[in-house]
Amino acid sequence: MNRRYRKTVIAGNWKMNMTASETKKFAEEMKKIMPRAKWCDTLICVPSCNIATAAKAFKDLRIAVGAENVYYEEKGAYTGEVSANMLKDLAVKYVICGHSERRQYFGETDQIVNKKVHAVLDAGMNPIICVGETLDQRETGITGDWIALQVKGALYGVSADKLRRCIIAYEPIWAIGTGKTATAEQAGEVCGNIRATIRSLYGARVARSVTIQYGGSMNPKNAAELLAQPDIDGGLIGGAALKPEQFVDIINAANQD
Ligand code: 13P
Q1: Most buried residue among 161, 163, 191, 239 by CB atoms closer than 10 A?
Q2: Model pLDDT for residues 25-40, shown as the tens digit of each residue
Q3: 176 Cα–ligand 1 center, Å
């Protein structure tokens, strides 16, 4: 973390978990243990059918509501899709773009991710742009090039001004939901490379203002060490964000002086 130049952001990604009733229950639990906001912003990205419930339930909790996906067209005959304006109207502040599960199971390319990033920015929300390599790519030594390409693809045509509203989440695919975490050094190195890519595109001043998260089995045990890396400014948390105590422990790790 480097709180002097950028925000620390702890974000949950519930994926396809939690019904609306479970969302209310989660909020009730959180009310008892949520720490005072200190250094970090907190949000949870929920399934789209739970956004309205979450917006209401999280209101007094200092937890912003995020969406897990968006479609980039404004409106029209796209059965089953949800537009950026629809999310914005429900008080959504953040939208995950290009999660590896969407790339893997739903065929999202860098080009599609880029369109989504623009749609989210144009609607006045903040995209959380996910990038990450497979184990194969890591083992063949192409992690750096691959991620630089994903970052450049996602940010194509994004102005420096709008980039300030973007969060980049580094999520090594081999560490997602596997219990395997990148070591703090591995994660810190890739996040440093992501900042270097942004620096090459936008200059040093802009690059140092961008929040870069780590995601991939972040938990109460490893959060402090990961967050101690200078280029890791928060976490995008799956499994541990479904459990109020664990999520709070991670928030506390980010709040430490
Ligand atoms: P886990 O924390 O369950 O590994 O999930 C990480 C993730 O994919 C967050 O977007």
Answers
A1: 191
A2: 999 999 999 998 778 9
A3: 5
